Amino acid sequence: MRALVISPGEARSTRVADVAEVSARNGEVPVRPLEVGVCGTDREMSEGLFGIAPEGDDFLVLGHEFVGVVERDGHGFARGDLVTAIVRRSCGHCLACGEGAPDSCLTGDYSERGITRLHGFARELFAEDPAQLIGIPRVLGRLGVLVEPASICERAIRHARSIGGRQPWELQRALVIGAGAIGMLSTYLLRLAGLEVWTAALDSADDPRADLVTASGARYVSTPVEPLAALVEDVGGFDLVIEAAGNAELMAAMLGMLRRSGVACLIGIDPRVQRVELDGRVIGVDTVLGNRVLFGSVNANRVDWLAAVSSLDRARKRWPDVLPQFVGLRVPLDRFEDAFDYRGVKATLVLQE
Q: CB 261: neighbour CB atoms within 10 A?
């Protein structure tokens, strides 16, 4: 069986390889992936920055974003059902995991499909615990490959609302930094909620992603033309800022972009060794007097996966000609390098037509 694999910790070890055939054991559901999404996490693992192989193996099958089809009836699923699957799995011995929230695991001993201690979905067949499967409506089709990144956005927004809601708060105006998959999906989810949204990125205003932003009713900001500081001064600050670009300097600066009681959420990751600076008054005065909050969010809970399916279906109905444009490149498994090099919203690896 063919799969996309890496040797964890070894840069540029990504390759298509033959791996052992999979047979579903009692209590498991066999699933055939149709398409597997590629994201920054896959690229970073391909460069050897992280990734942990399952015990007993010296390789890791990649792929944590996918849409697939159930191979045979059983465990509440029927042959032909479209599904995706939760990525992070419980550590088995902490309070958060015990309460069904491995996205908030307190030990770090969790496992993750295609990332940490569990093989991923970029292969021809796998077997899954039915409790980890998420059904996808037939009308959503292969756009179900967007459910995993959308679940990340749903969790971030859910937590931002919980934090902001600790006191009287009006969430009206949001800034999203970054126009990759996470930034774009965050933009659309916030627009579905009726917020005024600005989405900022380095790309010029004639980039196709700028058109996708404006198609949602949000406003696109090309930061080389209009720096974020100028935008904040012009607009007057934001109730919610989401950083999805993975830039530590911007992460620190977010506190200065907020209105009173504003919430800033970090989703992007910046592993570079560096020092960042922040004006002392922003954190020493403005954050305190303005009740501002900066927090990080990772992964997603089952409730966020279900919310992502619902939101994507709503987005499909509201913007039927736009949502399919999120997936700008589809290539077969052996063209994974093209998918890794793609810098549009989303590229996928097609395992079955």
A: 18
Residue 166 makes CB contacts below 8 A (sequence gap 6+) with none
Token reading at 331? 């290539």
Give the pLDDT confidence score for residue 249 in this predicted structure.
95
Q: Which residue has the tokens 């012009």?
A: 234
* CA-based nearest residue to 223, from 283, 174, 189, 179: 179
pLDDT tens digits for range 220-236: 999 999 999 999 999 99
> pLDDT at position 32, please?
98
pTM over 0.85: yes
CB 132 within 8 A of CB 77: no
Angle at CA 324, nearest 5°, toward 322 and 328? 110
Contact (CB, 8 A) for 23 and 88 = no
Half-sphere exposure of 82 (CA within 13 A, CB side): 16
Distances, alpha carbon 308 to alpha carbons 125, 128, 311, in Å: 24, 20, 5
DSSP secondary-structure letter at 323?
G
Taking only Cα atoms into account, the Rg of the chain, rounded to an integer number of angstroms, comes to 20
Q: What percent of the chain has pLDDT over 70?
A: 100
* Structure token pair of residue 74: 């059983």
Between CA 88 and CA 85 the distance in angstroms is 9
Query: Would you state the structure tokens that stand for residue 223, as one six-digit string?
Result: 């930061």
Edge-first strand listing for the sheet containing 219-222? 219-222, 196-201, 173-177, 238-243, 258-266, 293-296
The pLDDT tens digits for 78-100 are 999 999 999 999 999 999 999 99
Q: What are phi and psi of 15, to 5 degrees?
A: -160, 160
* Dist. CA 66–CA 121, nearest whole Å: 7
